[in-house]
Amino acid sequence: MNKASLPLLLLALTAAAHAQQLATTIKSTEVVPGIYMLEGADGFSSNMGLLVGDEHVLLVDDGMAPITANLTETVQKLAGRPIDFVVNTHVHSDHVGSNAALATNGALIVAHDNLRKRLVEKPDDAGGPAGLPVVTFADAVTFYVNGHEAHVFHVAAAHTDGDAVIHFRDVNVIDAGDLHFNYMFPFIDLDSGGSVAGFIAGQRRIIAAADDETKIIPGHGPLASKSDLQAAVDMLVDAQARVEALVLEGKTEEEVLAAEPLSGYHDTWNWGFITTEKMTQTLYRSLTSL
Question: Can you give the pLDDT at residue 6?
Fold first, then answer.
């Protein structure tokens, strides 16, 4: 196994270890009337966005397969009806794992072109072939449901190569998917078409669409604001510069890690999956593989 595939293996192993916890209660927070942030009570699950109303139910991401039963139960309690549309923000199994089950129950899966291409190669990540998106888009698509305007737009080469952000324009809410890990080092999946430069550009694009009152649903972590996302951008830009300075000195990866250039961010941003060391490795690999 090469080093590049190790992060995804660790994610899969961690997910398996948390399978029981993932089947527990889902917490719901009403962001604005009719729009909720859903998060697993285990502290590991990805966040989801939910739009409810008299016309349709739209879900943004759907977690791992073990949470499907509790997810559908939670949505039924909040919406009083089943899920009509699922928009996937990216290809990782902690965001698309319930696709097949929800599609079998009548939900229409929508995602970027590149996300479908990757799931065609690994359909098990979405629960099987039934979980493949049946509607895809290249640049953007807009849902007009329940009196809301949900603008879904592609952000290129960021977290992956198939990222989507959902902007509920009329109520000033943005679901950023994994373009925002709130006060956590981000996972930038270089092996799935992601890039550090694209990730920063994508975050800045979200910031440009936001104001001081915008509520941002992150892929992981608590409900966020524009200032929280700006802090994440500032951290990543500075972290990249710190690692780049050592790369320009000709230091090897081992020497860069030994120098601990991100130590000042450790206490706030380090977490179980993307540790300070892993963030440093990602930045080093990105800077030296150009």
Answer: 44
Quickly list DSSP for the chain: --GGGHHHHHHHHHHHHTHHHHTSPEEEEEEETTEEEEEETTS-SPPEEEE--SS--EEE----GGGHHHHHHHHHHHHSS---EEE-SSS-HHHHTTHHHHHHTTPEEEEEHHHHHHHHH-GGGGTSGGGS-SEEESSEEEEEETTEEEEEEEETTSSSSSEEEEEEGGGTEEEEEEEEETTS-----GGGT--HHHHHHHHHHHHHH--TT-EEEEEESS-B-HHHHHHHHHHHHHHHHHHHHHHHTT--HHHHHHH-TTGGGHHHH--SSS-HHHHHHHHHHHHH--
Give the pLDDT confidence of 8-59 residue by residue, as tens digits.
444 544 444 444 444 457 999 999 999 999 998 665 579 999 999 999 999 9
Structure tokens at 121: 């190669």
Cα–Cα nearest to 191, from 160, 147, 151, 227: 160
pTM, full prediction:
0.92
pLDDT digits (tens, 9 = 90+) for 103-134: 999 999 999 999 999 999 999 999 999 999 99
Q: Return the DSSP state at 45.
A: S
> Which CATH fold would you assign to the domain 3-236?
Metallo-beta-lactamase; Chain A (3.60.15)
Strands (E), the chain: 26-32, 35-40, 48-51, 58-60, 85-87, 108-112, 135-137, 140-145, 148-155, 163-168, 173-181, 215-220
